[in-house]
Recover the amino acids of this structure.
């Protein structure tokens, strides 16, 4: 089925959607993005994603091409036009197409580019991988210093994913100064003695919207949370490990660099958090 996508004010079939070759997203990775999940045809934590998007734009002095309410309407239109019950909405804003290649930012009157498309993922919530868990390898984190801004500079995370696949694993956890920063497209956690441990927020990691929701729910459920960094060795000897993201929710990690974590099967805390997170997300989705 041909998807209907959104490009700069228009809903068009994906085969007819066009962005200029001079677009700064294409030439300079000068763009930011968000991925919002859809459950029961509704948007999960839309406001969290809209707020982080606004922050990313502000940090890069990039114009917002639409208001929060306009973006909400576009998301909803795309869900409806593409009949999405479970899946993802990808949104990207770039600094636009000034009509030539120039390192300097274009004049203020060059409009930003706004693109959105859906990804239909039936069974996203019931993902069987959540029952078996995934395997990760560690790789050095060589990304730039502003990982808190959700930019489209995703080449290294993409390489990390390929290094993981080459090693027979599913994902890579990136390590800097001996400590885990995050996964290629997710936030990383371990559980030790019932305590949930995840790196504190800084410019070193993306401030995950799922992370914020999961930590809030964990605290409400009287689980202990500690926000601090940890090493790969500590993760390998933890009781459980898992990651969170808008596309995978809460996903158990059962092996790190060939070493089984805990029993080598998904742990009870990750399973419980996944359940609570999905239940709550369905209740508050808009
Ligand atoms: N990635 N860290 C990184 C580097 C990410 O790319 C992501 C999300 C996260 C988790 O953030 P959130 O909970 O807001 O999804 C953490 C999205 C899903 C992606 O690139 O597809």
């Amino acid at each position: 089925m041909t998807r209907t996508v959104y490009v700069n004010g228009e809903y068009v079939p994906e085969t007819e959607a066009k962005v200029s070759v001079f677009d700064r997203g294409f030439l300079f990775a000068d763009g930011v993005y968000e991925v919002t999940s859809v459950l029961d045809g509704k948007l999960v934590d839309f406001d969290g994603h809209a707020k982080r998007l606004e922050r990313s734009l502000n940090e890069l002095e990039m114009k917002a091409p639409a208001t929060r309410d306009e973006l909400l309407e576009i998301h909803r239109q795309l869900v409806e036009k593409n009949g999405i019950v479970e899946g993802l909405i990808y949104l990207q804003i770039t600094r636009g197409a000034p009509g030539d290649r120039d390192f300097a930012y274009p004049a203020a009157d060059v409009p930003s580019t706004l693109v959105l498309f859906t990804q239909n993922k039936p069974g996203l919530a019931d993902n069987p991988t959540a029952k078996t868990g995934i395997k990760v390898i560690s790789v050095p984190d060589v990304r730039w210093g502003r990982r808190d801004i959700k930019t489209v500079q995703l080449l290294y995370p993409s390489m990390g994913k390929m290094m993981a696949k080459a090693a027979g694993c599913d994902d890579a956890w990136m390590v800097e100064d001996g400590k885990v920063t995050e996964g290629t497209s997710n936030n990383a956690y371990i559980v030790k003695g019932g305590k949930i441990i995840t790196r504190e927020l800084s410019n070193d990691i993306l401030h995950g919207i799922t992370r914020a929701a999961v930590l809030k729910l964990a605290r409400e459920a009287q689980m202990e949370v500690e926000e601090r960094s940890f090493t790969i060795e500590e993760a390998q000897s933890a009781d459980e490990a898992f990651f969170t993201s808008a596309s995978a929710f809460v996903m158990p990690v059962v092996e790190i660099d060939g070493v089984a974590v805990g029993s080598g099967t998904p742990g009870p805390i990750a399973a419980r958090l996944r359940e609570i997170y999905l239940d709550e997300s369905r209740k508050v989705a808009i």
Notes: The longest strand covers residues 31-39. The radius of gyration is 19 Å. The helical segments are 24-28, 46-59, 68-81, 129-132, 155-166, 209-220, 232-236, 268-284.
